[in-house]
TrEMBL record:
NCBIfam families: adk
This protein's GO CC annotations: mitochondrial matrix
Major location (coarse): mitochondrion
Assigned protein family: Belongs to the adenylate kinase family. AK3 subfamily.
Protein name: GTP:AMP phosphotransferase, mitochondrial
Domains as described in the record: Consists of three domains, a large central CORE domain and two small peripheral domains, NMPbind and LID, which undergo movements during catalysis. The LID domain closes over the site of phosphoryl transfer upon GTP binding. Assembling and dissambling the active center during each catalytic cycle provides an effective means to prevent GTP hydrolysis.
Keywords: GTP-binding, Kinase, Mitochondrion, Nucleotide-binding, Transferase
Cited function: Involved in maintaining the homeostasis of cellular nucleotides by catalyzing the interconversion of nucleoside phosphates. Has GTP:AMP phosphotransferase and ITP:AMP phosphotransferase activities.
Binding residue positions for AMP: 45, 50, 71-73, 102-105, 109, 177, 188
Length: 235
């Protein structure tokens, strides 16, 4: 239930990154955080790319076959797409609070983001690894449906839409992601292990890494909420 008047306010700006394997629940947890804390925005690199694909933009054309194969799009491309989004939302400053879901996911991307945020003294101040066992997430993907314009995500057993095949808010049709098939999902997991897991150390060395773990989003979410409340809601 969305109870706007009960949202918790932050006392300090939060610039967060969620890192997790495909299907770990980055989108799911982002939505829960936004429903609990006031004044936080969110941006998912995968959602931006899927919107570009559905709108057939030049970026969408470049990204479509790469996403379908489960590989990662080029660091420079995704970094510039995310930078433009941050600019257009006026989030490139020390005041705004936001969550990045899925970007950076390589060390090269982390360096590019730092080149943008560092000079503003607005680097990421919390990077959270959502740690979920692989056998658990494999089961989730088969049942996932998404609302591409908003990025809202459903699962036929865990959080089914109120009306079958329709987004709860807009009533628009839901889609299957073309990269949610087992062979492609395996490639996405490999990319995560090969290039994204090493990024954890990068952020650990910078003193901003936190880890939350569990076999379900219901187990992980309270850990996330506590971390955010303790880190950003007290002066
Ligand atoms: P994305 O879109 O960033 P992934 O692979 O990183 O894709 P994904 O698949 O979106 O991550 P998620 O957001 O971590 O997973 O998970 P989710 O959608 O919230 O949850 C997964 C499913 O499980 C949902 O159906 C949800 O309802 C359900 N669920 C959640 N919790 C539970 C639970 O506790 N129990 C159960 N039973 N179900 C649950 O990137 C896609 C592609 O875009 C490109 C790449 O090609 C990438 O493969 N891309 C980038 N390329 C380069 N650099 C970047 N930074 C890029 N970003 C995107
Ligand atoms: Mg996602």
């Amino acid at each position: 239930m969305k109870t706007a008047n009960r949202l918790i306010s932050l006392a300090k700006p939060a610039r967060m990154l969620l890192i997790g394997a495909p299907g770990a629940g980055k989108g799911t947890q982002t939505e829960r955080i936004l429903n609990k804390f006031a004044g936080i925005g969110a941006l998912s690199s995968g959602d931006i790319l899927r919107r570009n694909i559905s709108q057939k933009t030049q970026i969408g054309v470049q990204a479509e076959s790469i996403i379908k194969s489960g590989k990662l799009v080029d660091d420079e491309l995704i970094a510039s797409v995310v930078k433009s989004e941050l600019e257009s939302k006026s989030w490139l400053n020390q005041k705004n609070s936001w969550i990045l879901d899925g970007f950076p996911r390589t060390e090269g991307q982390a360096v590019l983001l730092h080149e943008t945020l560092g000079p503003l003294n607005a680097d990421l101040n919390m990077v959270i690894h959502l740690k979920v066992p692989e056998d658990i997430i494999l089961e989730r993907i088969e049942n996932r449906y998404v609302h591409i314009p908003s990025g809202r995500v459903y699962n036929l057993t865990f959080n089914p839409p109120k009306v079958s095949g329709r987004d709860d808010i807009t009533g628009e049709p839901l889609s299957k992601r073309p990269d949610d098939i087992p062979a492609v999902f395996k490639q996405r997991l490999d990319s995560f292990r090969d290039v994204t897991e090493p990024l954890l150390e990068f952020y650990d060395k910078r003193g901003v890494l936190k880890v939350v773990s569990g076999i379900s989003s219901d187990i992980i979410y309270p850990q996330l909420e506590k971390l955010i409340a303790e880190s950003f809601c007290q002066n």
